[in-house]
Design a protein that fits this description.
Elements (H helix, E strand, L loop, with lengths): L1 H5 L1 H18 L1 H5 L2 H28 L4 H33 L18 H12 L2 H7 L7 H4 L3 H18 L4 H22 L2 H16 L8 H25 L4 H7 L1 H10 L6 H10 L4 H14 L2 H17 L6 H14 L9 H10 L10 H5 L2 H26 L5 H8 L3 E3 L8 E3 L6
Antiparallel strand pairs: 1-2
Length: about 450
């Protein structure tokens, strides 16, 4: 047992239990712990842009061929679109199969729209922005602006351009590439320090949530929440599990490998909080840094699997709750619009409600005010969204790497089977054999 408590996983589990207890027993005090969670996520986000830049630039410069970089990018986009479409369709299918909103008979006129004003205003901006505007937002105003805006895609664009330039100038760019590689080691050491604070961040986030909303708040619209969690589990185990099996790996072993990061996401409801760590873990698993550096950051905006399930499931739920009939044409419109709007979710404040509002406006018959119904349980659904999105992007990286033959499968199986232990601390051995266990 003592060894369990020395691990990040064990410490996060303890933090979750203590946070829930504080929220139940001392709610006023628990709500004051919110800055712990906010500070932890803020520290993580501080590191995301420079780490992505270093990893992507070094990966492209060391890839040896820009054609390979292009192939990885194209394969990643193809995979993202196929899996996202499956996720959207699964959300619709299970919403109709289980009818979570049937029988609620909500009159849209009785809903209070006050709490939705800011979300709807932002949604109108999201919906009004066309393809041209979306592409323009990918281009930062200045080079430094890409790192200060918090937009992962802007950082990725700068990183790809810089990495390609280093690759093309050959030996002249080698000193710069070497410097960036050394800088990445220092950045990952900084990240190692920050990750050690994860239990405090989880404690603050979960204590605040339970203290403010109460454990009983999970019962409100519980059927929808349970159905969403069940749908995400089905998607991960069946869909992603099958895809990962085709690549030669087990989804359960893969999830076990990522358990520390998943526990942090469980407590903070943010997949951003572990982005650098999962990139490092995938590299340690035997995937080249160039593939990891391209697929993971891009996936954070283009491969939001659980978020896609949420969009269609919540849209059909609101239609059912407000007695709004949906035709096959309506469902196809929701599917098509959600396929587009889901791509702009990352980086939008209150993204889930905002993007859902933008999606609903495509079907005038569905009252946008119905968003009030899911607003109160959005945080709880956000936990499953973050977990599902993270697993989906990690699986995507493995699949694209296997497709590109850019993964050491022998090394990957050893890591997933627990035959080697991965240590993200740069001053420790990266892959230390486990000692024999005596019973």
């Amino acid at each position: 047992m003592p060894k369990f408590f020395k691990t990040i996983f064990g410490q996060v589990v303890v933090a979750l239990v203590v946070g829930i207890a504080l929220g139940v027993l001392y709610p006023d005090f628990a709500t004051k712990l919110k800055p712990l969670g906010d500070a932890f996520i803020k520290l993580i986000k501080l590191m995301i842009a420079p780490i992505i830049f270093c990893v992507v630039v070094h990966g492209i410069a060391g890839a040896g061929s820009l054609k390979k970089v292009g192939r990885v990018g194209v394969k990643a986009i193809v995979y993202f679109e196929l899996i996202t479409t499956v996720a959207l369709m699964l959300g619709i299918a299970l919403a109709f199969a289980f009818q979570p909103g049937a029988g609620m008979n909500i009159d849209p006129k009785s809903l209070d729209a006050t709490s939705l004003k800011s979300y709807v205003d932002t949604a109108s901006q999201v919906k009004s922005s066309g393809t041209a505007e979306f592409l323009m937002k990918l281009i930062p105003t200045t080079f430094v602006g890409a790192f200060t805006s918090g937009d992962v895609l802007q950082v990725l664009l700068i990183s790809v351009m810089f990495g390609c330039a280093l690759s093309l100038i050959g030996d002249a760019g080698k000193p710069v590439a070497d410097f960036i590689e050394r800088a990445s080691h220092a950045l990952f050491k900084m990240m190692y320090f920050i990750v050690r604070l994860a239990p405090l961040g989880v404690l603050g986030a979960i204590a605040f949530t339970v203290g403010k909303y109460g454990v009983g708040s999970l019962k409100q619209l519980g059927y929808l929440v349970v159905l969403f969690y069940g749908t995400v589990i089905i998607f991960v185990v069946v869909i992603l599990g099958s895809v990962l099996r085709l690549a030669g790996f087990s989804i359960f072993k893969f999830i076990r490998y990522l358990k520390d990061e998943l526990m942090i996401v469980l407590g903070t409801a943010s997949s951003d909080s572990v982005l650098p760590q999962v990139m490092r873990k995938l590299e340690k698993m035997g995937i080249s840094d160039s593939t990891v550096g391209l697929v993971i950051p891009t996936g954070y905006s283009f491969n939001l699997d659980a978020f896609s399930i949420y969009l269609t499931l919540a849209a059909v739920f609101i239609a059912q709750a407000t007695n709004t009939p949906l035709s096959l044409e309506n469902l196809l419109v929701i599917l098509g619009v959600a396929l587009i709007t889901s791509k702009g979710a990352h980086g939008v404040p209150g993204s889930a409600i905002v993007i859902l509002a933008a999606t609903l406006t495509a079907i005038p018959d569905i009252p946008v005010l119905g968003l009030v119904l899911v607003l109160s349980v959005d945080w709880f659904m956000g936990i499953a969204r973050a977990l599902g999105n993270l697993i989906g992007n990690c699986v995507a990286t493995v699949v694209v790497a296997a497709w590109e033959k850019d993964i050491d499968k022998v090394q990957a199986r050893k890591v997933l089977d627990g035959k080697v232990e991965v240590d993200l601390d740069e001053h420790a051995e990266d892959l230390a054999p486990l000692q024999p266990q005596h019973t």
